Amino acid sequence: MKKKLLLSLMLTTAVVGYTTAQEVITTVPAQAVVSTTTETGQQTVAVVPAQVDLIKTPTMCAFTPVSHWSFGIKGGGNYFRVAPGATSRSDQFHFIVGGTLEYTINPLVGIGLEYMYNTYDHDYQLNATQRGQMEGRTHDAVIYGSVNLTNLLIPYRTAFWSKMNIYGDAGVGVGFYQFKLSNAAGNLIVDSRDSGDGVPETPMAKLGLNLEYNLGKVVSVGGEVQYRYYDRANLGGYSMSKGNSDALTATIGLRFKLGGTGSKQHARNISMCEYYPQPAPVIIEKIVRDNTVETLNRLNALEAKNDSLNAELRRMNNALDSLSRNEVSGGTVNASFQDIEFEFGSEKLTRESYPALDQIAISLKDRSAKVRLSVAGYTDYVGTDEYNQALSVRRANSVRAYLLTQHVPASRITIIGYGEKDPIATNNTSEGRQKNRRVEFQITK
Asked: Which class is domain 292-444?
């Protein structure tokens, strides 16, 4: 019979643990019951309480809905190598302009189409007596792939890196080129358009490195350097003595991200953690045998506490939505959670505070671009006024530090300490003093 009881306990543990792991806001079951029959035929019932241990993941990101399309415009200069070469090095730099249309598959990779207009006009000298002018240009159309190196190397980005992206680009395409050579007197020597087959073309390829800084949800500014290779040696009318024509380019430009409004973010604006969200911290239920009234009371109290937390979270989220729609009088939302507590005489958060803070972090990150959070710390009355004032500031800062680990932007959080002011319960009992060791939140737009 002992073996049967042990097997029943193991099965109950597996079922409870699996069910709990599926929930983002976890709930604690009131009780588990194991029924056994003794050798004499008498049936007994053992109440099995839940011993709760919190298993935290390293990070937690809420899923962010995204848009994918964007387009960019850019301009700058190039350094082009063609034959005949320029008479001076400064004559090899020319103005370029272009644009891109991209579909960003996810925060790591994207594909796009690029158009660039390159010029390479310059004066040339072939020998001591032969000089002239060359007019040249290419119209390049390239299909490319893009990799976000920032998201590849820093998957959990905060502060400055939440707005900065570094991309590596590579692609292939076709360059449609034209050139015209004239002598020093201005007489035409050769014109590629007179060859009879229209505008000649050449296969080409590019490699690029692009830095972008997000000015907002829909606009970013960036700078890019590229190497462009053309599978022709005669883009200037003469064949290169060694190799084919190529160019280095440097541009600056703006990118406009389509559809990144409301609750959506563009895929170029977020981290991999937000696109592929990590699981929320889960509660693992450990089953032990116990049949005392105290166990039932403890489980009922945990269930009531969990219901209170869920209700307060729903109230705060509804108020935040109203705040974003300018429906809140005074533009301020106040929230207080009894589940955020500290050890006596310390700024150290109790383990039971983590689930509430994790869910608060999710709500704030979803609206991080719209709201600001003020964290107010409080103490009980034990200790001097000066000590309690300093302790309340440290407690508020502990909450701020925890929210930062959950990737709530630091620029959106401020702290303040009120010491032992404004108690919400009596300081004459240990339960009341524990309630007074708390934090409260004030959220504004």
From this structure: alpha beta
Percentage of residues in the chain with pLDDT exceeding 90?
Answer: 29
| 88 sits in which H/E element | none
Instruction: For the chain, state the CA radius of gyration.
Output: 33
Gap between the Cα atoms of 237 and 191, Å rounded: 8
pLDDT at residue number 37: 42
In whole angstroms, what is the distance from residue 320 CA to residue 209 CA? 40
Contacts of 68 (CB under 8 A, 6+ apart): 103, 104, 105, 259, 266, 267
> If 0-12 CB within 10 Å is exposed, 13-18 middle and 19+ buried, where does residue 148 land?
buried
Query: What is the reported pLDDT for 297?
Result: 66
pLDDT band at 380 (very low <50, low <70, confident <90, very high): confident
Rounded to two decimals, the pTM is 0.52
Q: What mean pLDDT value characterizes the chain?
A: 78
Beta carbons of 314 and 420 less than 8 angstroms apart = no
The DSSP call for residue 348 is: P
Residues of the chain with CATH 2.40.160.20: 66-272
Which candidate, 111, 120, 112, places its Cα nearest to that of 139?
A: 120
Q: Quick check: 102 and 253 in contact, CB under 8 A?
A: no
The residue with tokens 């969200």 is 277
Q: Is the pLDDT of residue 8 over 60?
A: no
> Looking at residue 342, what DSSP letter applies?
B
- Dist CA 37 CA 442 (whole Å): 56
pLDDT band at 85 (very low <50, low <70, confident <90, very high): confident
Q: Which of 228, 86, 84 is nearest to 144 (CA)?
A: 228
Q: How many C-beta atoms lie closer than 10 Å to residue 10's C-beta?
A: 11
Looking only at the bridges linking them, the beta strands covering 265-266 and 332-336 are unpaired
Residue that is written with structure tokens 């702290």 in the block = 415
**What is the predicted pLDDT for the residue at 206?**
97
Residue 15 has pLDDT above 50, yes or no: no
Q: State whether CATH 2.40.160.20 applies to domain 66-272.
A: yes
Token output for 425: 């319960």
Find all residues with CB under 8 Å of 176, minimum gap 6, and list them.
Answer: 138, 139, 140, 141, 199, 200, 201
